[in-house]
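User: Predict the complex.
Assistant: Input components as received:
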Amino acid sequence: MKLQHSLGGLENVGPVSTERNVFVCEWEKRIFGIHMAMMSLSNHLPDRPDNLEFDSEWTWADLRKGAEAMNPFEYFKYRYYEKWLGGISGFIISEGYITAEELEDRASKYLEGGPPAVAGQAGPEVDGQILKYMQFGDSPKSDVEKTPRFAEKDRVRIRDNHVTDHTKLPGHLRNKIGTVVDVSDGTYSYFQHTGPDGIGDAMPVYTVMFEQDELWGELGEPNTRVYADLFEAYLDVAE
Amino acid sequence: MQSLFKYVDDREQKNAARAMALEDLLIKKGLITQDSIDTILEYFETKMGPFNGARIVARAWTDESFKQYLLQDTPGAIASMDFPTGMAGAEGEHMKAVANAPSDHNMIICTLCSCYPFPVLGLPPYWYKDPSFRSRAVREPRAVLKEFGVNLPSDVQVHLWDSSAQIRWFVIPEQPLGTEDWTEEELVKLVTPESMMGVAMVEKP
């Protein structure tokens, strides 16, 4: 497990940022848009046009995995969208759509004053698919039926499964005891299988409530409760 | 190790150049069009943003039965309003509303990344994605609220909702005192994104 899997409760990180802008530099808009476009065109989506040039799977899981794979010191050094820029450029290169040299060459032309505009051949089906994804999304809800192992008011102990490269279980909840306050309707899959971490296949999901003293002992603030949305693979019976 | 913390002087220029170069190459290779990125940005500027959440909150303030519907069945209640297609789209597939009250204060967080209900709140402000908020708010929400200028009485119960699977929560803030006879349209203007995330109160001007 890496530091970025367990940010909750980390001490001495200084005051919070209260920067209300979504983008703090103009270029951040472009990488955000590129990420949303790639998610919209991802080849795992149903009813996608079959003539799209982008033919890879790209989801939030890939973006998160990239950030979780970073050297933790680098993770804190780079701003949010800088991490995206690194992860997305790396993926586009590794999938063979462009080469690292092409990217460096074109970027250096921008630094020298700006290259001539490019033209492309992508058809209207690309922006049609993008709008379709934005409007209809990619729900993880599944048709698979599974009887939930837990019910509301059950006390559960959070497992401490081994993480290889990606998890949806915040580190500060591991080995803690909470109470199920809601069982989501149906079952939910995750974009990818996370190996020994345990998610991917459709399974029930719960909202689990933790009292602050269970999580933080004397370091917590009174009258505070934390609720997390947790896949069944992360829960065990509290003995 | 020391080299890790060396910042290059032209860091932002290099970032900008790389981002623009990447977009150009994706256009050139036919993966996206000249318009793709602007189409996406415009979608969040004009169709899916905090202006939708503000309308939902104002409706909840003026119509108690709608508020109860919203808390019981968030997607159903939102679908009953007149919004453009997309309220159950990207990052809005499974949204849930939670309501503040004199005795209860709700906040949203994503300690692992930045999950956020796009259709009602738009795109998350920088502070929500910054590691300092994600580290601290989950353990010391009152201290964090103070940094946002909110002093919460110690007997108020704080509820922190961490989006770690499919649910994207948002907060129905409390209606400010003295606005009981305001119209829905007037109330919409008071609701800020921060108030729907639980780090600000809605104030009567």
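The CA atoms of residues 46 and 185 of chain B lie 18 Å apart.
Let me know if you want any component modeled separately.
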